[in-house]
Amino acid sequence: MTNQKNLRICNKGHKYYKSTDCPSCPTCEQERKSDSGFLSKLSSPARNALIHEGITTLEKLSDYSEKEILKFHGIGPASIPTLKASLEEKGLSFKS
To answer: What are the tens digits of pLDDT across the range 6-16?
Structure first.
């Protein structure tokens, strides 16, 4: 089975190739990447998953359990230690 890449053009006119149905434009992702804060420490899929769910602050993140966060498409087990460390820096934790 081959993963044929298809040319796509995002709403902003950036051209990119994807072999999956993932709609994210790499150029737009780079432009959106935060230079600071806990979201900047995550991979693009993980960051996008949290943003998609409206989780843009550590306070909001602390309203969720690890199990709930892991259910979001784009979040994997490798993201949890980074998220935990960011929460702990602010005296917060995942919901029990």
So the answer is: 899 988 899 98
- In whole angstroms, give the CA distance from residue 75 to residue 69: 7
> What's the domain count of the chain?
2
Range of the domain at 82: 34-96
Number of Cβ atoms within 10 Å of the Cβ of 10: 15
23 shares its domain with 52: no
Q: Is 50 in contact with 61 (CB distance < 8 Å)? A: yes
pLDDT surpassing 80 at residue 46: yes
Measured between alpha carbons, how far is residue 54 from residues 31, 60, 71, 72, 81 in Å? Answer: 19, 8, 15, 12, 20
* Residue 62, token pair as written in the block: 């602390």
- CATH number of the structural domain spanning residue 56: 1.10.150.20
Q: Are residues 20 and 67 in the same domain?
A: no
